[in-house]
Amino acid sequence: MNESMIDRINALARKARAEGLTEDEKMEQMRLRREFIAAIRMNIRSQLDNIDIVEADGSVTNLGEKYGANKAN
Fold first, then answer.
1. Nearest of 32, 72, 30, 31 to residue 49 by alpha carbon
2. Measured at the alpha carbon of residue 64, what is the angle toward residues 68 and 31, in degrees to the nearest 5?
3. 30-49 as b/e, with b when 16 or more CB fall inside 10 Å?
């Protein structure tokens, strides 16, 4: 997700509040929002996969290894 895509999402949101959107613009807005949410989820999944938990017995458990770094949850 780059700045130009975020700027376009914001521009469409402002236009929707001010004057409304055409059907093509509504479809573009939905597509951009889906891409944005997918990017956020991928970023969060990547961060969670890199978290290590130290158990009470001193062992270290990596969440990515425990719950599957390649799973799509």
1. 72
2. 75
3. eebeeeeeeeeeeeeeeeeb
Confirm whether 73 is domain-assigned: no
Report DSSP state, residue 54. Answer: E
Residue type, 67: Y
Total domains present in the chain: 1
∠ CA 64-47-37, nearest 5°, is 115
Whole-number Å distance between alpha carbons of 28 and 26: 5
pLDDT digits 0-9 by tens, 6-55: 999 999 999 999 999 999 999 999 999 999 999 999 999 889 888 888 99
Q: Is residue 60 part of a domain?
A: yes
Enclosing domain of residue 21: 3-67
